[in-house]
Amino acid sequence: MTAKTRSVGILIFPDVEVLDFCGPFEVFSVCGHQVAPGSFEVFTVAQSREPLLARNGLEIVPRYALAEAPPIDLLLVPGGQGTRPLVNDAELLGWIRARAEKAELVLSVCTGALLLAKCGLLDGIAATTHHLALDLLRSLGPQTAVRDDQRVVDNGRVITSAGVAAGIDMSFHVLARLVSRETAEATARYIEYPWPRDEARQPKRPAGGS
Fold first, then answer.
1. Which contacts (CB < 8 Å, 24+ apart) does range 95-99 have?
2. CATH code given to domain 6-201
3. What's the first-to-final CA gap in the chain, in angstroms?
4. Close Cβ partners of 141 (under 8 Å, ≥ 6 residues apart)
5. How far is CA 129 from CA 58, 146, 210, in A?
6. pTM of the complete model
7. Which residues, other chains included, contact 12 with Cβ-Cβ below 8 Å and sequence gap of 6+?
8. Are 175 and 27 in contact (CB under 8 A)?
């Protein structure tokens, strides 16, 4: 690792949507190991280190349990049907709040935004989620400006993305912000992903945002 290495902690849980976490995992890890060595170190975190089943039965072994996880610079919360019971899980919500307070960026993919909303992390800002969960986000985050026309919503420190594959676009947006656009484009070429997409739908860096 170098002095500029950023840690990316990805929360996972039973019934997490596979591409929600695997897409960003691939983007940040390829950047950190192949394209810009030492820029990112990526790991998964769950409530325990016991194997869990993601959406559609993929078995995953988390790298860390909540209490064991090292410091997290970029906290990423994915979605999936598994977020529904977690909106009432006081232990997990408390962990998200505590880690978000110290993180450089807080990111969500799909219905991971529901957990951020329940933590109060979306109060007074704009956010998005999977198109089938927009109303649920409105109910859990009544003080959130829910965007149904943006794939990625960048508030500066909190960035949310729409459903599933949108997390990949969000990850490239973060690479461009934190490292460089050239690095993001090189990473996209490496994994043969079409980025950037339509420039009209790309998130704008917020005025005064970090």
1. 95/66, 96/11, 96/121, 97/121, 99/9, 99/69, 99/72, 99/75
2. 3.40.50.880
3. 23
4. 113, 116, 117, 118, 122, 123, 127
5. 23, 8, 22
6. 0.91
7. 21, 44, 45, 46, 52, 54, 60, 62, 78
8. yes
Rounded Cα distance, 113 and 117, in Å:
6
Residue 31 DSSP one-character state? I
Pair 16, 55: CB distance under 8 Å: yes
Mean pLDDT of the chain: 93
For the stretch 51-80, pLDDT in tens is: 999 999 999 999 999 999 999 999 999 999
pLDDT band for position 4 (cuts 50, 70, 90): confident
Domain ranges of the chain: 6-201
Which helix (H) or strand (E) segment holds residue 46: the answer is strand 40-46
SS3 content of the chain, % helix, strand, coil (to 5): 40, 20, 40
Known active-site residue 110? yes
pLDDT score of 193: 95
Token digits of residue 11: 């929360």
* Model confidence band, residue 208 (pLDDT cutoffs 50, 70, 90): very low
Residue 89: partners with Cβ closer than 8 Å, 6 or more residues away: none
